[in-house]
Amino acid sequence: MTLKMKKFIPILLLLILSISLNAQPLRSITYQMMVDKAEELMGKADYKNALEFYQQAYEEKKEPEMALKVADVHYLLKDYNKAARQYRSVLRRDKKDVYLEYRLFYAKCLKRTDQLQDAYNEFIEYAKKTTDPDGRQEALLEIKGLEMFNDLAENTDIKFVPLPKEINKAFSLYGARLHPDGNLYFGSFDSDKEIVLDGETEKGDAKIYVSTRDDKGKFSTLTPLGENINRAGYSSLHPAFSEDGNRMYFTRLIGNNNSIEEAKIYVSVKTGSEWGAARILPNVNADGIICRQPAVGELYGREVLFFIADMPGGYGGEDIYYATIDGDSYGKPINLGEVINTRDDEYSPFYFEGSLYYSTNGLPGLGGFDVYSADWNGNYWEQPTNLGKGYNSLTDDLFYSLDKSGEAGFIFSNRPYEGKKKVVSETCCDHIFEFGYRDLNIDLLVKVLGPKGSLLDAKVELVDLSDVNPEPAVTKTNFNGNTFTFPLDKNRPYKAIVSKTGFDTQTIEFTTAGIIDDYTVEKTVTLVTSVPQMQTVKINEPIRLNNIYYDYNDFKILPDAEKDLEVLLGLMEKYSDMVIELSSHTDARGTDSYNLSLSQKRANSAKEWLVQNGVKAPRIKAVGYGETVILNKCVNGVECTDEEHRFNRRTEFKIISGPTTIEIEKQVIKDNGK
Length: 674
Known about the structure:
By secondary structure, the chain is an alpha+beta fold. It contains ten helices and 39 strands. The chain is globular, with a radius of gyration of 27 Å.
């Protein structure tokens, strides 16, 4: 079952749950029991626990179908790096396109992880080969989104800042809105840890919280609203306010792990400083219909309530509707029509001065859900416009809203950022970002050239060289263009590192000191084609691979290690008669016997990766040497840093039969220190 069959799963209710399983230890249950339990948990939308059973089943039988199930769950948990690696391990060997339909989701993972050229190529190939019309249409939409990458507004005059960790907890947040009094309301689980359902702990429900700016202008504290709003047994989410601030609309929702069983829209009236008892909206809600994410606006000169619902007769999954507000009465829901609603999903409507802002995955975009706006001309909606970069990222961007000035606001995104709390991955959960205009609009424009002119698909990393409070480094790629734009802060030194595979990397340095007006720093960088430096490797000569390190006391292959394993895979394919010893070494911490066992597991892990990617197992002899070959001073009894110890945790290979010499690029080889 591919993911397209699971499209009903609402991405906005991502929970990471742990359950207490009163069953046998995983090691003692059969393969089929593991699979059955995983399928049962998937049926309950309990992805994290299902993943554990799928992974155990895969460890027992290295079947491609099980590997793809593991990849699917990583995708649902928005762990796109792990999903991509798992998909790739199967699809790179799928020469007959047995698993063609999974390539669509592999391509999406590549896009989410900023591997845009590879994603584009995968979407193109999938669209050519698939016989599924829905899948082809989805791929063509993704292709169009990538092709318009350079046409979207850069928005370098806008600064996006995540709210502090007191607000942005590890879990997703839901629907922030500013009240007219300046306080920020939003839905949250207010938890940095997994929610444990052990039969004794009450089920975790999200609540609506309010936060007030502190003396420094930051939102840093949060207080839950009272029982009139946050009712036990329900999650309360998506607050929205009438223009005078006296009415609050919100969603009450019953969830089952990561699926929604019931969602209704309620309204509460404020009396003094207290919110009154909430009442369900008449006409708007209906039995068996998911209604949520309200927003107050105006159409035809009358106050209306926008919201999303999965009502019959819509255009796609969840559409945007409106209902006229007349005092305490509400009109019949009306679909906004095909200009706004697509065959896919529309989320998080927000109305401001004649424009509707919303997120959709049914139009071309940068990521999964992009923010669009559409103007109301008094009779109908104009064609929607993508808000561009910054507002939109390679991930999901939702719940756009503005303050009363229209010059600042908030947006929700699962984009990664430095210091982000996470429970599964850096893209698992939606956090709140505040945005507004920069006081001084300084930006950097880098143009990358090669030997024949414009050089596409380069990468530019911008590094703030300030000694005090430097901004995190930012990396951008441009697979179908050669220009890069970055916002800059005043009075700061910077360097930009420009690179592309097959070319020598170049670095430029500059400063914004003395700039007092809006200004663009323009730099043109010409990259020169790299000349590979080759080295001859002889039989029985141990070669250390650059990046195959391990975390302490662990034998899992780290993501960076795959680059070197790819090189080794290429050598095994080039020299088809070559047989190698693949050896692993530990540092000196731990007992000799334990380290010997651990190193053997690490060598086996590296061998397993190569075998999964098509190398015959007899061509690789995996050997663990433990701590018998230490490369620096860090033997038993010597105090060393973790980085010094890590240098000894390594993987090497040597030819033991086949060719007597091979040619290998020097950059793959690291000095063995011998």
